[in-house]
Amino acid sequence: MKLLGLGDSVMDAYLFQNKCYPGGNAVNVAVLARRAGAEQAGYLGLLADDAPGLHFADALRAEDVDLSRTRIMHGKTACNYVSLDETGDRIFTGNNGCDTVQNMTQLLLNLSDRAYIGSFDVTHTSIHSLLDDQLPALAARTMLSMDFSGDGFTHVNVAKLAPLLRFAFFSAAGRSLDDVRDFAHYAAAQGVPTVVFTMGMRGAYILENGVEHIEPACETEAVDALGAGDAFIAAFLRNYVDTDGDIARSAAAASRFAAENCGHFGAFGHPWNMEEN
Questions:
Q1: Which residue of 30, 155, 229, 232 sits 20 to 30 Å from the alpha carbon of 23, by its own alpha carbon?
Q2: What is the C-alpha to C-alpha distance for residues 205 and 198, in angstroms, rounded to an integer?
Q3: Which of 81, 124, 123, 71 is nearest to 102 (CA)?
């Protein structure tokens, strides 16, 4: 199975450690799919040429992720700030502003990019990558997968994108199982063959061809849960393609992999010391 991550990249700055970790849903899924056993992984997106951006690129190369079509732009790397609340939970507290490569430059895909994308079995992107208008040109070349996160979906945008997608992933956040089930059936009715809601320690809900599957979460001593949902997506896609669509096996493998991925800081490690900036 060959998977491409398309779109968003960002550094997650753990202020309580004074360290940044490479991240972004499209990046994380590519790296973690490779770790989960994908034959090949690539990332097509925007990176900056500042110190954290160059570290970011080196981290992806170290993970055997192809960057041959990634744009390295002059400017500043986007960074989300992560802190600890009074209970020890990590919370996003802000960012380093809009004057970053990722916020000032639009990723425009050309014919060479489209040919490259077509060499992958699955191309995974996110609603936050802002590539909706470019997806129709890709749908016939590769199986498209999109993460809508927990705050990036509405009935309107799902209805617009559903006919283009092979897989749609959502985060349930605080939604009830009834709400999850209702929206999953809505997304399926709009044209998504496989709909997946990750629900944290409540497990995952999957709907395909009218058949529901609920996969329990695996217990783990979590060091950091950031990226657990992306790990689930990565392992699910890798196993789904390589088992010709075995939902039960793919979901079980994804649940185990997501739990294992909570054993280190950052979505896939590779910290950069902020004091070096």
A1: 155
A2: 6
A3: 71
CB burial of residue 124 (10 Å; 0-12, 13-18, 19+): buried
Whole-number Å distance between alpha carbons of 151 and 206: 19
Distance CA 168, CA 208 (A): 11
Instruction: Give the model confidence (pLDDT) of 188-209 as tens digits.
Output: 999 999 999 999 999 999 999 9
Strands 40-48 and 2-7: parallel
What's the CATH number where 221 sits?
3.40.1190.20
d(CA 232, CA 120) in angstroms, rounded, equals 19
- The model's pLDDT over 81-120, given as tens digits with 9 standing for 90+, comes to 988 666 556 788 999 999 999 999 999 999 999 999 999 9
Residue holding tokens 């590769």? 142
Would you tell me how many other CB atoms lie within 10 Å of the CB of residue 36? 25
In a domain, 230, yes or no: yes
> Given this model, what pLDDT does residue 277 score?
58
| Alpha carbon distance 191, 253 (integer Å) | 26
Q: Is residue 67 packed enough to be buried (19+ CB in 10 Å), middle (13-18) or exposed (0-12)?
A: middle
Of the candidates 131, 142, 185, the one whose C-alpha atom is nearest the C-alpha of residue 165 is 142
Domain of 30 in residue numbering reads as: 2-269
Q: Is residue 274 part of a domain?
A: no
182 belongs to a structural domain: yes
